[in-house]
Amino acid sequence: MLSSRNKFFLILGLFFFTTLLSSLAQREIYSDTIPFKDRLYYGGNFGMQFGTITLVDASPLVGVMITNRYSAGVGVTYQYFNDRRFVGGSTSTYGGRVFNRYNVLPNIFLHGEFESINFDNFNQFNGEFSRIWSNALFLGAGYFAPFGGGRGGANFTFLYNILHDNLRSPYGEPYVIRVGFVM
């Protein structure tokens, strides 16, 4: 069940994105001037850690600039985790996401994302692991740091999961900080 604080953030977030999308509907979509393939951007996150605990994370994404300030896209996530301190300590996590991004300033953006992740969840009541799907609704903001004169750069994003549930989430906290790259 959602706490009253999370319900407040959910209602506030839905109001924000409804208002944002209705204002974007009035913007001119410049599909006639810039070809679709030139409005696409690609990126994501990739991480590795080896040793007693091994973690491999690949989270690619693709987005499209709908207006000069608004973009939307999709992404997938795959993570492999192995803790050698435990027998059977390896698992995989996978899922997908859709996102919306609105550039408030050239390098500052608002970000909204719905994510669904399948992972091994520990059930505290029966003491066993079982695979479940966990949904998250992230709202937040970020900073884009361009590289050189091209379209590529790094994104630093600070997000809050308003659907966070400590018993059914792969994230330990509702706050998530991401660093990713786009080109």
Structural class: mainly beta
Write down how many β-strands occur, each being a DSSP E stretch of 2 or more residues: 8
- The low-confidence runs, each spanning 5 or more residues with pLDDT under 50, are 12-31
Largest sheet: 8 strands, antiparallel, barrel
Order of helices and strands: HHEEEEEEEE
Fill in the CATH topology: Porin
Q: Give the strand order, joined by hyphens, for the main sheet.
A: 1-2-3-4-5-6-7-8
CATH class wording:
Mainly Beta
Helix content: 10-25%
Count of alpha/pi helices? 2
Strand proportion: over 45%
Number of folding domains?
A: 1
| Reported CATH architecture | Beta Barrel
Spatial gap, N to C terminus: 40 Å
Shape: elongated
Protein name: Outer membrane protein beta-barrel domain-containing protein
Organism: Algoriphagus hitonicola
